[in-house]
Amino acid sequence: MADDLPRTPAPRHSPVGHDAGTPEYGGPTGGWGSLEGIAKALGEAQPSPDALRTLWRQNKTKGVMCTSCAWAKPAQPHLFEFCENGAKATVWEMTRKRVGPEFFAKHSAEELKTWPDHDLEAAGRLTHPMRFNHATGHWEETTWPEAYAEIGRELTEIGPEASVFYSSGHAGLETSYLYALFARAFGHMNLPQSSNMCHETTSVNLASTIGVPVGTCTLDDFEHCDAIFFFGQNTGSNSPRFLHQLQAAVERGCRIVTFNPVRERGLIEFASPQNAKQMTVGPTTKISEAFYQVRPGGDVAVLAGMMKRIFAAEAERPGEVLDHAFIAEHTEGLEEMQAAVEAAPWEEIERESGLTRAMIEDAAEVYLSARNVIGIYGMGLTQHVNGWLNLGMLVNLLLLRGNIGRRGAGISPVRGHSNVQGQRTVGIGEKPKHMPAEKLEELFGIDVPTEEGMNVVAASQGILDGKVKALISLGGNLVRALPDRERMEGAFPTLRLSVSIATKLNRSHLVPGEVSYLLPCLGRTDEDIQASGPQAVSMEDSLSHIYGSIGHGTPPSEHLRSELAIVAGIAKETLPESPRLRWDEWTADYGLVRDLIAETFPEAFHDFNDRLFTPGGFYRGNAARERKWNTETGKATFTAPTMLSALGENTTGDERMTLITLRSNDQFNTTIYGYSDRLRGLKGDRMVLLLNQDEIERLGLTEGQRVALVCALDDGVIRRVEGLAVTPYDLPPGCVAGYYPELNPLVPLSYHEKNSQTPAYKGTPVRLEV
Ligand SMILES: Nc1nc2c(c(=O)[nH]1)N[C@H]1C(S)=C(S)[C@@H](COP(=O)(O)OP(=O)(O)OC[C@H]3O[C@@H](n4cnc5c(=O)[nH]c(N)nc54)[C@H](O)[C@@H]3O)O[C@H]1N2
Ligand SMILES: Nc1nc2c(c(=O)[nH]1)N[C@H]1C(S)=C(S)[C@@H](COP(=O)(O)OP(=O)(O)OC[C@H]3O[C@@H](n4cnc5c(=O)[nH]c(N)nc54)[C@H](O)[C@@H]3O)O[C@H]1N2
Ligand SMILES: [Mo]
């Protein structure tokens, strides 16, 4: 279906649109296509008979909370409260296929390295604890007691300073709390987490501007907002259940304006799979009233332009445009920010954003027409060198009219992994402030270290330098997710100890250290029975609500242990015995761990066990929402722009282009479910290089030609990916796109956001080589 949304002005050479050979998905997001997507995943994954039952219970009270994204689970769920990707995640976990000792006897690690990511995970669920045998090159079966004992011995020998405990945002709050406690009791805070590659920009920069490391909105705000501004978040693919709230908002008259270099389908139109009428005769709901194809990193310029218009409106109608009372009472730094914005020339704003002044002023008028405004963003703002400026400018926009701390308004980062935010809330993080030391000393009699630990970038650098000798991974697939993949893959085997706690096989398991274990765990959909009976786990969503989750599926193997049991098993063998570290009792009853969480973080988690199954989750509170600003000055802070691009010094010029790495809707991070990117109309090949037709002609390329991309930052390391098929796509000039994780070798580890070290996966300068 064609759409009539305003478009980016034509690039310099010749006009580009969908007509310029751009493949485009014709249907709306959701709709029949999503049901087909689920059916296909159901077929290929060969789900167990429990899978349909689990789907029925997904995201409902006392059901299982989706293992895919972190979007909120409403108190009154839809009949099917899951989306295409949530369903894929469930059936993918609940497959009948198994990867056990026979599989590993047949396939060496070297052979498995030749398998694509999709095939490794599609092989099935891990079933037995395995130890790597370097003499044979194969993973071989071991026992849990042997594994725990050797890991404990090795960790003790290596010591805390050279040990790193990574976590990807899957594991529940109970396991995460114990993992964070284990690290501190052992003597380190080397607790890098997937959010270091993701919303760390949020944690650091929202904390400094508005005093909270997370968003301020709840679902209720989406029922009372008048306008929503979307920056760099691909809802249709990455948090599809959110489309229900957006659809309802649009239907009640809320205006949505989107900025994204890619015309992402989900933010254009949506047909609810829950709505029989929309599925058959339509009409579908148009989501964005305006969709602007901003250049990568150009959001700073867009926001500067919008604010220029707002300041001009205030000059025309003094006292009527800005929320002066709010600004006076709650903020500081307006003058400096206003001066910087007013000094920014429109010419530069247009160049950096790739949009016209008229477009940006139109967007500003939408902002001014609305009483309550929400700002939403994702990786398009965070994964840039100047991510801090992106966030600062969005916060500025909202503060100008008091759009934080009021019903129907606020800032809402959309988080990734289902419990990524919660893991941080209960202490996973490299900073002392992530867990109150006095409390831990009082509860457990341990000496908590005072020194800050390593985040993902520091830990990776430590692995490269040989400073880090032990790596425990609670989920995840670091060697595929990290920047600088070639260098990182080369360094992983130099680790003395590497331990992966995982549900499925992935590439990180094929670069084992000297002593290496692969420990299979229960997934969230699996029934978890311990000595005190069946257990629930819990997680926190993007909107700071906390839910219990109960798995009902028959575990894929009797040899699996829960994540909590594995963390406790390793901790017990590593730390000196203490009557106050009751690893066995905690494993027997996770409720005891929830009591500890409540004691450690009483404000957020009081009466945790009683509130575990509150419909819609229980809210842990948010100071900025109450207009209490836990910043250095006690006020919300405006950020003065020091430049007009999030790309830092690497903005425009020469033959360099800006690479953005994308996710398809057929992957969850490094888990590749399949090779179709339905919503973008792409299919069959992930080794593609997307660029607009005009650029293809200018560079003398032909569609389908295989080219190489090289990183254009010069630090003596050659970073190159070959064999990318030239694919015309509607992108702004100077912008190329390709898939994560295939293009990760191009992003330097040192190329990251200034304050938080989030890798600049959306703004890497590259050159094309034929
Ligand atoms: N199906 C599925 N769901 C997922 C995931 C998945 O891989 N698959 N991953 C999960 C995780 S961990 C996360 S963090 C989230 C990620 O979800 P998102 O935050 O949506 O992340 P991305 O898809 O990486 O990129 C978001 C958008 O940013 C745009 N973009 C790139 N550069 C810029 C820019 O400079 N400015 C603007 N305005 N936009 C830009 C891209 O075109 C893209 O549409 O999703 C979670 N949910
Ligand atoms: N170029 C580029 N790189 C990126 C990004 C990007 O946009 N562009 N995005 C970044 C982002 S936002 C993130 S969050 C990271 C993601 O980085 P990670 O979190 O490290 O990677 P995932 O792909 O989510 O991890 C997948 C693996 O987790 C394991 N797993 C799945 N479920 C469970 C479970 O329940 N328990 C346990 N223990 N293991 C489980 C499986 O073995 C699976 O293979 O990647 C980052 N890398
Ligand atoms: Mo993420």
From TrEMBL:
Full protein name: FdhF/YdeP family oxidoreductase
Task: Look up the record and report any one GO term of the cellular component aspect.
Answer: membrane
- Entry cofactors: [4Fe-4S] cluster; Mo-bis(molybdopterin guanine dinucleotide)
Region annotated Disordered, chain positions = 1-33
Q: Which family does it belong to?
A: Belongs to the prokaryotic molybdopterin-containing oxidoreductase family.
State the taxonomy lineage. Bacteria, Pseudomonadati, Pseudomonadota, Alphaproteobacteria, Rhodobacterales
- Reply yes or no: does the keyword Transferase apply: no
Task: Print the keywords alphabetically.
Answer: 4Fe-4S, Iron, Iron-sulfur, Metal-binding, Molybdenum, Oxidoreductase
